# Entry
Amino acid sequence: MRFLPWLEDWLKHSQPCPMCAAPAQRYQHTRSSETKNGRAPFCHDCAAALPWYTASRCPQCALPTLNGDYCGICLQHPPAFDQTLAPFRYAFPLDRLLQQFKYHQQLPIGKLMAEAMLPHLPPLLAANLPDVMIAMPMHTQRVRQRGFNHALELAKHLQQALKIPLDIEGCTRVLDTPSQAGMDMKTRIRNLRGAFASQKHWEGKHVLVVDDVMTTGASMHALAKVLKQAGAGQVSALVFARTLKNTEE
# Structure
């Protein structure tokens, strides 16, 4: 029995890199003058190639701004959510990894994504710790087709480490809206009207919404609007990656 912890540690660090199949290992990532150490099952070269989002950004929608000020869009037409946390940019090679996770039922990738995010989250959440976490809801028809809700899988892994209560049934997606690929922000917002519903009163709570990618923020806006109408005091978005170009959500 005394060899089991050693065996578990050996197996954890002997898994192949999910992007190139080379031996995975610890990686070190430096951001500004602060060094972040984390474990992720990527080889050294792939870890170095990850599209870390280190640029100054709007605190509300996470689009790049010169000095981390609010962007013009959020100042003129603020979304219903209050802030966005995004450790990565939606770019190669993470876009390929996400495709495998979402559309090819590679569920273990969800855990890898969470492990890559975790070293960066405690400092970001420390100043204003959310009361509850939810995953971006998926319509039941889509869940049956895909077999799982990818946002919920990611939220489950994050919840185990962050210890923020995860509410699975507090909000639902009641409309199976068509794909939003190629739609601009205004069209997406119209497309999402009435898409979400909540039967729960959130009692002024700070709700953290987990999703994989934010493109325009239309889905997060629609969900946050429903949450605030149901009593939420603050809604924060936590996404694995933020799209900075016109790519699909």
